[in-house]
């Protein structure tokens, strides 16, 4: 068995920014990270789903509500959440929101 010795470091100030404002951080073979920084109050226009990956997140700052397949949870600093692959969901940002997410398999960059 071959050991992968690849190491990556990413400075977020140089990271690509996606279509919804997310900053793509580091990505490996099985997981990637992205940053949602100071997302303004408001909500996505309609529920959407990610067919190919699941998402786990951690709230750094702000407040949002997550609607997911008929359930609703409030997300505040220190909270973690999971969006399963294929689950329809919608975020309502109530206070400018900063969070970090990991996706598995890695989310593709959509700039």
Automatic annotation (TrEMBL):
<dbReference type="InterPro" id="IPR011051">
    <property type="entry name" value="RmlC_Cupin_sf"/>
</dbReference>
<feature type="domain" description="Cupin type-2">
    <location>
        <begin position="37"/>
        <end position="95"/>
    </location>
</feature>
<dbReference type="InterPro" id="IPR014710">
    <property type="entry name" value="RmlC-like_jellyroll"/>
</dbReference>
<dbReference type="InterPro" id="IPR013096">
    <property type="entry name" value="Cupin_2"/>
</dbReference>
<protein>
    <submittedName>
        <fullName>Cupin domain-containing protein</fullName>
    </submittedName>
</protein>
<dbReference type="Pfam" id="PF07883">
    <property type="entry name" value="Cupin_2"/>
</dbReference>
